[in-house]
Amino acid sequence: MTPRAKGILSAVVGTIFWSTTAIFISYLLEHHNIQPLTLAFWRDLLISSALLLFLAVRQPGALRITRRDLPFFVLYGFVGLAVFNGLWSYSVKFNGAAVATVLAYSSPAFTVVLAWLLLREALTLRKIIAIVLSLAGCVLVVEAHRPDVWQVNLTGILVGLGTGLAFAIYSLAGKWSTKRFASPWTVTAYGFLFAALGLMLTQTPQTALSMGPRWDGWLILAVLALVPSLLGFGLYTLSLRYLQAGTAGLIASLEPALTTLMAITLLRRPFENVQWLGMGFILAAVALAQNESTTLEKSNVALEETVMS
Length: 309
Description:
Blueprint: H1 3-19, H2 21-31, H3 36-58, H4 70-95, H5 97-104, H6 107-118, H7 125-141, H8 154-177, H9 184-200, H10 205-208, H11 215-239, H12 245-252, H13 255-267, H14 273-308
């Protein structure tokens, strides 16, 4: 399997796991006494604890970081993850789930532009078209094309766009980490640890333990953290070792389409024709991103062969 294929597979499988998290989160928020920021805090803490324990047993060398790494993890965990989770919670509150999803998936645009400015990734016409298709597809899939859905104010829009920017920072920091850390699981473990520390500042003993002794709620929260969340974020971070940050971000835009498909399958929710069109736009954007990655890989091989000759 080529590095590009490994990256695409990791990003797609990670996005599939991600797309199931909305089901768990919605169930917990609707049926248990827990607030969004409290849920995010426990999720991040459980992910980091499980990964740190696993690495201590299986790969103790992967736990070694230096003092020079701390600023990176503050940016990666506290800004990229904790701020993203916090802004996402409030974006849903201000904007509703549909508009919040569309605004969050402004992240591929932020990622591509920032990667061009900071990482010198090429800003091509294909990427620009893929961004437009991805955003349009998200609008149609979550039915944000209906005027009544956009009951937002300026604060709501800014908070929503902030989720996209925070996720772009997370993606770019993850891409940079591939040059410094040997294992993506090291980055994921410490990133979520710093995210949990950041979210802990939003909690009191009362809010942190608001779910009480209901074991079924804690079990669902543990499954959410240790299966779709851990594997989703971990595999996405792994994909950044093989793909450009902008390409990985565009593949991640499959999430709302996959979540909607699961809603159809599990909840028997009807799917409108315009939503199928939106899914087609997202798939076309992902195909363009993959094609762009293939073209760049071939160009790099050709350049290496020219230099060798």
